[in-house]
Design brief:
Helices cover 45% and strands 18% of the residues. It is of the alpha+beta class. The structure holds zinc ion (ZN).
């Protein structure tokens, strides 16, 4: 029976090791993205009275995806119109935005 648990444990550890490089790479790419405040600072004309617009095409239709998984509190926001990745939302910032009832789109 001990062998069974060791086998299951080895499979789980192997699975994590396989996933780790891609998760680390995504996190590094994600960290290079500006935060919303940095995005607004770099593109002041994109901060509108009631939100944010894309600096490339001017669209306000954004896609909000998890940085590593679909349920990740760390989010990546990109433009649905032109596909440009715009900025990142750090988990605690997302909680603050939701607490203020300003839901990211
Ligand atoms: Zn765009």
């Amino acid at each position: 029976m001990d062998g069974f648990f060791w086998t299951i444990g080895a499979i789980v550890v192997a699975g994590l090791l396989v996933q780790l490089p891609s998760l680390t790479r995504k996190t590094k790419e994600w960290l290079k993205l500006p935060t919303l405040d940095e995005y607004w600072a770099a593109n002041p004309n994109c901060k509108t009275g009631n939100g944010t617009k894309c600096h490339v095409c001017g669209s306000r239709n954004f896609r909000n995806c998890g940085a590593t998984t679909i349920s990740d509190d760390d989010r990546t926001v990109s433009c649905r119109q032109c596909g440009t990745t715009l900025y990142r939302i750090v988990g605690p910032d997302l909680q603050r935005l939701l607490a203020n009832h300003v839901k990211p789109k």
